[in-house]
Amino acid sequence: MLHQCAREVVRELGGRFPQSSEALQSLPGIGRYTAAAIASIAFAEPVAVVDGNVERVLQRVTGAQLTSSETWNQAEKFLSHSRPGDFNQAMMELGATVCTPRQPGCGVCPVRRWCVTQGEEVESKNASPRQAKKEIWCALDWRDGQVRLVRRPVNGSLMAGMWELPQFLPKASEAIVAGPSYWRKFRHSITVTDYTVHVARQAAPGVKGKWVAIETIPDIPITGLARKILKASGII
Ligand code: SF4
User: Given a cut of 90, is residue 129 above it in pLDDT?
Assistant: First the structure.
């Protein structure tokens, strides 16, 4: 990227390095953060820098759950227009050396008097949501070159209209796990949920489904979980 950037400056810009954060972002390898850092530190442009350290400081100082764009806006509001380069470096350094992730040094912090949280954690809106855990049971029922599948509701919010293995609620799960029809379990994650998927080689009690010819499966939309199970079983 550095080499590409240098070539572009020479070829396209007559060897003149851009001096504004906006122009810098047109170069290879330079995004918003790098452009703001160069423009403010090297050329004194009043533009704020946000990296992970600055983001943490801002969340703690304001005590607000800031989205990514709100964090950038907040950094712009705090920015010193007379010394933007020094301000940005100070913010990054504050996050790296004082307002550290695990043990913020609030006792020696130069911005303590303005800090709303003073070390109490604020959950970031950018943080990944915690994964929920669920257990489901699938019936792997096949014979004569066909496998029984069910279609998800066409107006559902997730994988609408796709085909999957029938699911069922076992009356006595321990007995099924110990029984001859139990095959194996899979781990599978969909959006914010981690599933433990038990698969039994049997019909799903109370689920009719549809017998689908195995050779036609490549032509129909099936869920990732169904594909995973059918592949593992050697059916497709
Ligand atoms: S007072 Fe504590 S939490 Fe607030 S910015 Fe300083 S080190 Fe971080």
Answer: no
Three-state DSSP class for residue 130 = coil
Domain covering 132-232 assigned CATH 3.90.79.10 in the classification: yes
What element of type H or E holds 161?
none
Ligand 1 and 105: CB distance under 6 A: yes
Of 156, 168, 157, 159, nearest in space to 209 by CA: 168
Give nearest CA residue, ligand 1 atom 2.
106
Spans of all domains in the chain: 2-114, 132-232
Tell me, using a 6 A CB cutoff, whether residue 115 lines ligand 1: yes
Cα-to-centroid distance, 59 and ligand 1 (Å)? 10
Q: Quote the pTM value.
A: 0.54
Overall fold of domain 2-114 = Endonuclease Iii, domain 2 (1.10.1670)
Q: Convert the pLDDT of each residue in 191-227 to its tens digit.
A: 667 889 999 999 998 888 999 999 999 989 898 899 9
Give 92 Cα–ligand 1 centroid separation in angstroms: 13
